[in-house]
Write a structure and sequence with these properties.
The complex is a heterodimer of chains A (about 250) and B (about 200). Chain A is an all-alpha fold. Chain A contains ten helices and no strands. Chain A is extended and about 95 Å long. In chain B, strands 1, 2, 3, 4, 5, 6, 7 and 8 form an eight-stranded mixed β-sheet that branches. The two termini of chain B are about 15 Å apart. The chains are: A mainly alpha (about 250), B alpha/beta (about 200). Chains A and B meet through helix 1, helix 2, helix 3, helix 4 and helix 9 of A and helix 1, strand 4, helix 2, helix 3 and helix 5 of B.
Chain lengths: ~250, ~200
Amino acid sequence: MDGSKDIDTLSSELENRLDDLFGENDIQLPETQEKSLKEHYPLAELKNLILSIDWEITDEVLDGLIQQLKDLQLTYQHDKIVTTFLQILNSLGNYIQTHRAKAHPKTFKILNAVFSSLDKVVLAKDMPETDKKKILRAEMNRYKELRTQIVKSKAAAKRKAQSKATPTEPDEIVEKKEESVITLDEPSAAPPEGLEEKVEEEPLLTPQESEPEVMVASLAEAVAEIKRYIHTEINALKAEIQLLREQK
Amino acid sequence: MAFINLKSKEIQVKIVYYGPGRGGKTSNLEYIYGKFAKRINTEMVTVKTHGDRTLFFDFLPFDIGIINGYDVKIQLYTVPGQVKYNATRRLVLRGVDGIVFVADAMAVRREKNILALKNLQENLAAYKKSIFNIPFVMQYNKMDLKEQGIPLLPVKTLERDLNSQLKTPSFPASAVLGNNVVATLKRIISLTVASIKKDLI
């Protein structure tokens, strides 16, 4: 048998084997499909980030949250209700980013509540618009209530601090300042542009390290990555245990 | 280079699913495992974080049987897509024989696809491999999201962004629904095995 015949035999043998193994006649397991759909619904990343904020407030998580909200606002720019939900979350995210641990304690609860409602609205495709609006209005009210509480507590703190020096400053000024902290943002609609040029312009890379060096360096970096991950997970678990204890 | 054991007549082919985070690499493997696990008689290994993100990699090995007298074993890997796990991605790429690049067709992920492809090129270069010479299949995933009204990049734009230089076979797909998941897999296995044919014959 010559070489080309061997290659042909090999190719057809391989094709037949792959057809046998991966023929599409099987019925897909519904559990798997359902699980996959759950994992890849459009709010999955946002959910992860909001849960992460519950555990630990880091720059990385907050930047991720703001970026994710921007992405989703673009994705849902034609859906006013979802966009408003996202704007509320964005305002809360910005507020947390500015105030961190000093943020009003109810903020995190409301952040989770707004997300849960958004989740409900996005997942329930058959929900009538009026019901969606009702849910949105309830979250808007919670959000407004939080805003009022923040303004009041800040004003009270400021009055207390200023009572020693200038106790006569009017409350109105304080309220105006606080309003800007948690104002709803306009959704951004700018599409990404000029990406083709980026790919074309960048030169092809030339390797500078030998493979063993790369391996050693990569291994060390990977171990460091895993260490960081384990550290984060332990902290998250500690926080969860603490929370469970408090609930008891 | 695939691992070929001439004595035991065994060949191990390593295929890596690469791409931006949340693009659907793990979903590809989950679909294959969920649908064909009994037939390919295997277990899928996966390590995930709290938020269901791939931490280290997913691993799905299976045997496709005797081809030309050699027992051909396929190993499918995914890499963690998150930017911060680049060292892990690079490690997983060691000894890779074929690549499936899973791009996210959502309009908002356009730049992330390009950055991930660039990152793949860099990481392959570290092993003195060229993205232009390795068996490669491009997959444009999440096409099902169009029905939910989510803006997607047209295939033409994805081809221009990602495949104008590589010119590799490409598939619009939905890993969640399984559309073109098997076609992608068959193509990459065929291309990869074809690239080592000389050693087999």
